[in-house]
Amino acid sequence: MKRSNTNQIGVNSVNFKRANHGFFLWFLSVISFAQFSCNDDIPAASQDRFVDNLYGNTTGLELIIAYEQGADPYTSFGGFDNWRITDYNLNQLLGTQKIPVKVPHVLDSMKNLGVLSQNNYTRQNIIDIAADVQRYSNKDSVKSIVLLFLNGYLIKDGVIETRVLGLNIDGSAVVAIFKPVISASSSKEAEKNMVEQSTVTHEIGHVLGLVNNGVPTTSLHHDQANGSHCSNSSCVMYWKNGAGEVAQYIDRFTRGQDITLFGAQCRADIKAK
After folding, report:
1. Is the model more confident about 33 or about 257?
2. pTM for this one?
3. Which contacts (CB < 8 Å, 24+ apart) does range 11-20 have?
């Protein structure tokens, strides 16, 4: 699979004079929406996980994004290309495994699902929707992750979960983002945009086997009390979705350094896989 040009762009090439304010708001928002969460179904060891056929058997990975009418992904804010965040971080993470990742950046490259019949979604609903847009088998050398943006909430055990931002289904190649929860995470548009990207990157991290979710840890950073999450509060795989020392992040951005969301320990785990 040919890597898109945007995958080659390091974050140092971003115009930080325009983007810094947006990133400042992003990390403030990560703190402020700590009451929201991801909801990751941890598969039994006997289940067929996407990660089990990923490393050592993949020449390319494509992110397939599909959205329900009214749940369109945010693509830009203030002239900044939002999807550079996910693109850069996934390619940085998997570059050590020589797996290029193709990420769409504009709605025209994403699939509009129209208006779906249900208002809220069970795990099985999500699996069925993803099956209609998946292009590859997990056995193929080129693989894909399906990312669904839904205009409703997760239904878990018969209960509507109004605080779950995103979900990875059983370690599969399926991620759901619940747009009403993203929208409720802040009253400010810049914050909503960045909360969405942080959530996307976090959930895909689970698909790729983080943390100790198919990819063994190489150091002590698995926060077992909070599932497959990282104990490093500066990592996007932290259970609060990357909430860390805001001043530390802002200092990095103002000095023009890379916007790396995955912590060094999670990156080391993937590199060693």
Report:
1. 257
2. 0.83
3. 11/84, 11/88, 11/257, 11/258, 11/259, 11/260, 12/256, 12/257, 12/258, 14/80, 14/84, 14/259, 16/253, 16/254, 16/256, 18/78, 18/79, 18/80, 19/78, 19/80, 19/253, 20/250, 20/253, 20/254
